[in-house]
Amino acid sequence: MPPQRSKTVESLLAGAERAFAERGFHGASIGYICQCAGRTTGAFYSNYDSKVKLFLDVFRRHSDRTAEGVEQALAAVDTSRDPAAALAAVFAGVADRVLDERWLSLTMEFRLMAIRDAEAAGALAEHEEQFNGRVGAALDAVYARIGRRPVLPGPLMAALLGAMIRGVRLDRGFHQASGGAVPLDRAALERALHGLLAPSP
């Protein structure tokens, strides 16, 4: 990719991340994305032929940052103590920090759209497989260090944890919006995850 195009794409990605977070996938027009990016619509169409493809690049970038953070946290787990407690703390932290309300809403909006859009569904499924493979490999490495096996292979465990965390955050979001008590606070989530992440005998 030529340096100038790389700079343009980076501006579009940054502007799109802001626009999507503010207005959602459907609410963020190409014009508003370009306004946030400080670029023209011509620059957009020179690099992308659809808003879906731009969103997928934004989604991958956000997910890559998440995967890198999880990999680093898992590599630092102290396996001389209770590894399940340390792993539970890592993933409870992901639920607290990574999926803020705006990004969660955007992710759920896109997942619902993907159910009805074959292009988005295929790209999302491919991305999820790669993401779960990365996190799963990092999980398997933790269990390998203690010479034990997880209840599920790492990639399947990563898929399950991702689905659980999204569901927990979704429920927390509408309870918070209603002013009600938040179910499955961090302490409860850590207890549940501890049981799931305990190594097999």
Automatic annotation (TrEMBL):
Keywords linked to the UniProt accession: DNA-binding
PROSITE patterns in alphabetical order: HTH_TETR_2 (PS50977)
Location of the DNA-binding region in this protein: 29-48
Listed name of the protein: Putative TetR family transcriptional regulator
Residues annotated as domain HTH tetR-type: 6-66
Organism per entry: Actinacidiphila reveromycinica
Record's keyword annotation contains DNA-binding: yes
Keyword hit for Endoplasmic reticulum: no
